[in-house]
Amino acid sequence: MRSGNKFGFGPLEEVTTTKRERSVGPMGAAVREAAESLQETTEAKIEQRRRNAEDAKSWRSAQVEGRVLVTLPLGDIETTDLPRDRLDLDAVAGSDEMEELKSSIRARGQKEPVAVYLDDAGRYQLKQGWRRLTALRQLFAETGDPSFEQIVARVEPGEAGAAANRVTRYIDMVEENVIREDLTFAEMAQVAIAAAADPMVDGDDAEAMVGRLYGSLHKMKRSYIRSFVFLLTELKGSLKWPKELSRNVGVDLARIVKAQPERLDGLQTALAACATPDEQGAAIAAILSSGESERSPRKAAPATRRDKVEFRVGAMRITARDGECRIVTDWDFTDVPRETLERAIQRFEDELGLAIPKSSAA
User: Fold this and answer.
1) Does residue 266 share a domain with residue 224?
2) 24, 68, 203, 345 from 349: Cα distances, Å
3) Which helix (H) or strand (E) holds 267?
4) Do 181 and 147 lie in a common domain?
5) Closest CA to 188 of 247, 239, 274, 272
6) Which residues contact residue 79 at a Cβ distance below 8 angstroms, ignoring those fewer than 6 apart?
7) Which end of the chain has less neighbouring CB within 10 Å, N or C?
8) pTM of structure
């Protein structure tokens, strides 16, 4: 009997088949390459768009922060809005230092940009870089070279003519020259006077403006500037060459004018009659000499020295000792704004500096 299942057939034998290999034809290869190329191109475009967005964001940030440099024609820049921090611009324009700057620009080009801002009329006004602007104007006038007809500038961000930035512009204008110790005390005082008179600057008088413009300077330098502010304000236009006054001469002259106000008219008359800086110096020397001689009798009669002096001014009780002045009152000085307190103390120091002889204050 034949073995097998009831259907009469044996188990199926496993059949081994060979898989047929398919090769990509020319058309398929072309389609595949096109797809891969399209994918790479798409990824590259996405990456490029991302970079462009980052670059655009960085550019807008640089514009907002005033870090973008532009090239402007010299004729587009005005210098009429802010008073310059130089009292004798003609002398600076014709100085040896100006010739040295021109030689540097002629050989190496403009290395440092100037700073400008837009005024209410949409014109570029100079904030920093008067010497660089003047040097390029002189070079263009002398040579006619078009490379000297343009200037590299940094444009201040913000709206045109924004009054909120007015004091900052004054500070920026004088900052680089102050840091280089290139301004006289008379010039720094003149800037404070001009800023206080500026209708777009709120509040402070010229002496208080010194603290805002020159806050980074040592308090003693600010005290010297305030002495020159007082002197220029009192003498008005009779002091024809204020830059010729050294620091010590200006401070001593301010001390005499403040201590002896009755001499102001004679001082103005004597200075107004001066025709040269030398004559002005001689007149001031005579005034200082007479002022010291008038004070000498009081210094020759020394008072009996006391360990301390006590007195009252209104609600305040004052105790003065060597190196100490104590004020006691019911007021809570922590409620007084710091700026007000600093201004009051500064004026207190200035008043004493003008009243106490140098030998006593030393």
Assistant:
1) yes
2) 96, 44, 22, 6
3) helix 264-272
4) no
5) 247
6) 125, 126, 130, 133
7) N
8) 0.52
**Angle (CA) 166 151 95, round 5°:** 85
Please provide the size of the chain in residues: 362
The residue among 161, 179, 196 that closes a domain is 161
Residue owning tokens 């001593």: 252
| One domain for residues 182 and 282 | yes
Helices (H), 77-218: 89-93, 96-108, 130-143, 166-179, 185-197, 206-213
pLDDT digits (tens, 9 = 90+) for 126-171: 888 888 999 999 999 999 999 899 999 988 876 555 555 677 777 7
For residue 107, the tally of other CB atoms under 10 A from its CB is 7
Closest CA to 225 of 210, 245, 240, 244: 210
Look up the domain containing 343 and give its range.
Answer: 310-361
User: Quick one: 203 and 149 in the same domain?
Assistant: no
DSSP 328: E
Count Cα atoms within 13 angstroms, Cβ side, for 24.
8
pLDDT in tens, 210-242: 888 888 788 888 899 999 999 999 988 888 888
Q: Which two tokens stand for residue 330?
A: 């019911």
